[in-house]
């Protein structure tokens, strides 16, 4: 992991450090375009071919039925079932509190305006399952989709070596009341949900994190104007701001937790002491050697870096420029930093709040914007699964109040028919 001194960095250096672009971005975009094209033209057959090519499985059937899901779910160990139940309850509680009704507003006497939420009718959820199957993502997407009232929920996840999925994912499907899991991964799953195939229904909006193929595919189907997406939620990242109150062992554990997701994950350390950086790097070496996914995490750590700052103002300036998916404030003095946070997907406060808690069970959503998109996007929430429709009603009194304003503005724009729609009503003797 490289170490930089903040005061040695120019504005351009900082911009470059904050870029997540990788050398093979263009080739990924090219292969994703080809995959989307093949799914559009060959449908289910393309999904079977890609399952064989990328997931190394021959699929007769592209989905698991309710009975198959029940059979797989029955194999879940009791402790895992209880842990999923706890996570489910916490995530549900947090997301249910996001449901709200807006007040009607009378902008002028007799002119009422309001908004009502309606669920997006058909949504697609992508549950990663390449190097690790993520049932937690199923909860993070399925719970808000159901709470929002989405009627059709299509779920895709890559097939595992036995051509099925694992018991944890199957149990989540049961908890959520989802009766089918489509066995498709990567860009081909995204294309299937965007365009539809013989088996996979097309949806209006696609949700979920994934590797660079998945994220690129979501961006391409969005650009094609065919479907909406939640956000670009690609390779995981974390930025830890640590001071003298932090524990190097805890900080190292948090950095490694995101590094183990993929070789292209990033784990950034910002600290106000060189000794703290050195000790944390030592801890990383120590803890890394014990990890089953040490090869993946080690590569991600090589792609990561530390920045030595003189004070927390510099630390916050760097963090806001980087706009991390996850920001950990590993300091007892986190309260005073909160107002300075401008760009971050999700924030973890203090030395006893590991990011893993949010990944699994505290209640917040773990599907979050990466690659600097936290400058403009929020993570998944109930809002992601609804649209808000505006309504208005104008009474006779309201028509008299607002009419002349609209007539004058319509005339100013030279749009006579707009003006007439008011005038004809004002002239009518009873007002309607
Ligand atoms: N931002 C977030 O909110 C968030 C949340 C959870 C996970 N993640 C990220 O999700 C990702 C999960 O990645 P994963 O790979 O384990 O699972 P994945 O399900 O995203 O991708 C697996 C699929 O990628 C496709 N693929 C693999 N190699 C390919 C190739 N050479 N060409 C074309 N397609 C190929 C295959 O179809 C495979 O089924 C990680 O990067 C992790 O950091 C992000
Ligand atoms: N850290 C991931 C989001 O970037 C979410 C996750 C799922 N499982 C473990 N972690
Ligand atoms: Zn994680």
TrEMBL record:
UniProt superkingdom: Bacteria
Record-level Gene Ontology MF annotations: histidinol dehydrogenase activity; NAD binding; zinc ion binding
Note on how the cofactor is bound: Binds 1 zinc ion per subunit.
Residues holding NAD(+): 126, 188, 211
Keyword annotations from UniProtKB, A to Z: Amino-acid biosynthesis, Histidine biosynthesis, Metal-binding, NAD, Oxidoreductase, Zinc
Gene behind the chain: hisD
Catalytic residues identified in the record: 325-326
Catalytic activity: L-histidinol + 2 NAD(+) + H2O = L-histidine + 2 NADH + 3 H(+)
HAMAP family the record matches: HisD
Binding site for Zn(2+): 258, 261, 359, 418
Family membership: Belongs to the histidinol dehydrogenase family.
Enzyme Commission (EC) number: 1.1.1.23
Associated pathway: Amino-acid biosynthesis; L-histidine biosynthesis; L-histidine from 5-phospho-alpha-D-ribose 1-diphosphate: step 9/9
GO biological process: L-histidine biosynthetic process
A GO cellular component annotation in the UniProt record: cytosol
Binding site for substrate: 236, 258, 261, 326, 359, 413, 418
Alphabetical list of Gene3D superfamilies matching this protein: 1.20.5.1300, Nitrogenase molybdenum iron protein domain
Protein name (database record): Histidinol dehydrogenase
